[in-house]
Write a structure and sequence with these properties.
mainly alpha; three-stranded parallel β-sheet; 6 helices
Length: 123
């Protein structure tokens, strides 16, 4: 399965995997994952992008990236990331690129700040 994922273009990974003997369990788990998380788009700020359930290409790209470099595990990156509480745009200068933005809420004015963040945690 690893070879099928790494060799196929991200858009063709699901069909390449279905052709691999023994991939049914993985595909069942992938389908279950998409049932729960398939409403996610590739980027939250771009409403014209398809959801993962509509086009799993971005998700396949993430899986491929992890297989190419296991150190790219997003769980490890999350543990390394620093979190920064920003209460207002007046404090925006405190957020360093790659930090996790923690805020109560956001608005379109926060878009440049969100783009600088590795992740966003909002109430």
């Amino acid at each position: 399965m690893r070879d099928a994922i790494l060799r196929a273009p991200a858009a063709l990974v699901p069909s390449a995997l279905r052709a691999v003997s023994g991939s049914a369990c993985f595909m069942a788990h992938l389908d279950a994952y998409l049932d729960v998380y398939g409403w996610r788009p590739e980027m939250w700020v771009e409403l014209t992008l398809p959801l993962w359930a509509e086009d799993p290409t971005p998700l396949m790209g993430l899986i491929t990236g992890f297989l190419e470099d296991p150190r790219a595990d997003p769980r490890r990156a999350g543990r390394r990331a620093a979190a920064r509480l920003v209460r207002s745009m007046a404090e925006a200068h405190r957020l360093a690129p790659g930090e996790v933005l923690v805020c109560r809420t956001s608005s379109p004015a926060w878009t440049p700040l969100i783009a600088r963040a590795a992740a966003v945690v909002a109430a």
